[in-house]
């Protein structure tokens, strides 16, 4: 009986550990979605193959840089050359890593511009100065990073509206104000949820208690 109890405990701990691993390798989008009204016109693509296929012949160096950044979270891995862009990102937290915002059959342009509203779960009322980092595709080897200045955000609705004449890989950043002391935890894109760690620890403690109790009997 003792062996059965231990086996069950170990199995459950392994399941939780696996879930933590999956969360740690979370999607670079941070679970961002296109709002319902625009799903027929735009989509979010997040795999390395999509980046490569979309950018082949445009800028070969950008794809590995994006992959490296998504794994490390270090902005220097994107090799951004523009000092103005770097200044705009200074002190900001990534609400998402880099993902590909793609139009379907040309999208739904208004005045020659794509205007895409995204639901961003990480966008809380603590977020200020939200900026959208965008990779501007040009001729081979000529792509560069820019800030989409006309983009807007709504913390209550948890939405960011991206405005651009051309869509390609983007990432969303914000200054996070923690001075309000609301006690709200702030989820980083691509990080694991700490509650899973506590759950695993609690499971081990409870399991140990069961074993001890049975020993005493």
Describe it for me?
The protein is α+β, with helices and mostly antiparallel strands and 217 residues long. The chain folds into two domains: 1-26 and 195-217; 27-191, no CATH class. Helices cover 33% and strands 23% of the residues. The chain is built from five helices and ten strands, in the order H-E-E-H-H-H-E-E-E-E-E-E-E-E-H. It has helices at 2-24, 48-55, 62-72, 83-89, 194-216, and strands at 33-34, 42-45, 93-94, 99-103, 114-119, 127-136, 144-147, 152-154, 159-164, 169-176. Strands 2, 3, 4, 6, 7 and 10 form a six-stranded antiparallel sheet that branches. A four-stranded antiparallel sheet has the order 1-5-9-8, with no helix packed on it. The radius of gyration is 22 Å and the shape is globular.
Task: Please outline what is shown here.
The chain is of the alpha+beta class and 217 residues long.
Low-confidence stretches: 13-25, 182-206
Biggest β-sheet: count, sense, barrel?
6 strands, antiparallel
CA-to-CA gap between the ends?
A: 12 Å
Number of domains as seen in the coordinates: 2
Q: Would you list the SSEs in sequence order as H and E? A: HEEHHHEEEEEEEEH
Overall mean pLDDT stands at: 74
The helicity comes to 25-40%
Number of helices: 5
Radius of gyration over alpha carbons?
Answer: 22 Å
- Structural class, from helix and strand content? alpha+beta
Strand content bin: 15-25%
Q: What is the general shape?
A: globular
Total strands: the figure is 10
């Amino acid at each position: 009986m003792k062996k059965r109890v231990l086996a069950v405990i170990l199995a459950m701990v392994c399941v939780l550990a696996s879930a933590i691993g999956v969360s740690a390798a979370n999607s670079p989008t941070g679970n961002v979605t296109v709002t319902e009204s625009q799903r027929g016109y735009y989509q979010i693509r997040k795999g390395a193959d999509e980046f490569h296929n979309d950018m082949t012949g445009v800028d070969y160096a950008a794809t590995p840089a994006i992959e490296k950044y998504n794994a490390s979270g270090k902005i220097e891995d994107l090799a951004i050359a523009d000092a103005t862009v770097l200044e705009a990102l200074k002190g900001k937290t990534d609400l998402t890593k880099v993902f590909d915002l793609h139009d379907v059959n040309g999208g739904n342009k208004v005045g020659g511009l794509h205007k895409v509203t995204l639901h961003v779960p990480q966008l809380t009322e603590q977020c200020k100065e939200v900026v959208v980092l965008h990779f501007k595709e040009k001729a081979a080897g000529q792509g560069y990073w820019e800030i989409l200045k006309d983009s807007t955000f709504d913390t209550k609705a948890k939405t960011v509206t991206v405005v651009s004449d051309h869509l390609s890989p983007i990432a969303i950043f914000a200054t996070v104000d923690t001075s309000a002391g609301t006690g709200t935890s702030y989820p980083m894109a691509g990080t694991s949820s700490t509650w899973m760690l506590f759950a695993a620890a609690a499971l081990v403690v409870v399991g140990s208690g069961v074993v001890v109790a049975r020993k005493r009997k």
